Amino acid sequence: MKKVDKEVADAYFRTRTILIVIFLSIGFLVSFGVVAFAEFFSQFKFLGVEFHYYMGSQGAVVIFILCLFLNAVLSDNVDKKFGIDDDANASISSGKTVDH
């Protein structure tokens, strides 16, 4: 396994942490923010129902699943950017394994 510089490891950890915080914040806002402002959002309709009702019944779950998918795609891109992907690891180790 390739050794990674501390600055690169810190930048990788910082980037991954920022992504997690952003997506959890979005999940929190769509779950609780819409409920907190339900009276305001009741003036909007989505798919024939009031927006706050839709978000409480399905919308928050749909957005949370989209956040999970986007997090996976962006995390793969971050891994490749920092040289942490399966192909790079296989080429570095050349099939060698380490017994502990």
Strands side by side in the biggest sheet? 1-2
Radius of gyration, whole Å: 20 Å
The main sheet comes to: 2 strands, antiparallel
User: How many domain modules?
Assistant: 1
- Structural class label: mainly alpha
The total strand number stands at 2
- Shape by Cα distribution: elongated
Number of contiguous helices: 4
Distance between the termini: 14 Å
Runs in which pLDDT lies below 50 for 5 or more consecutive residues are none
Helix content: over 70%
Average predicted local confidence, pLDDT: 84
Percent strand: under 5%
Give the helices and strands as they follow along the chain: HHEEHH
List the quaternary state of the chains.
single chain
What does this entry show, briefly?
Pfam families: DUF4212 (PF13937). The protein is built from four helices and two strands. It is mainly α and 100 residues long.
Notes on the protein architecture:
By secondary structure, the protein is mainly α. Helix content is 74%, strand content 4%. The chain contains four helices and two strands. A two-stranded antiparallel sheet has the order 1-2. A hairpin with a 2-residue loop joins strand 1 (45-46) and strand 2. Helix 1 (6-36) runs antiparallel to helix 3 (51-81). The model has no long low-confidence stretch (mean pLDDT 84).
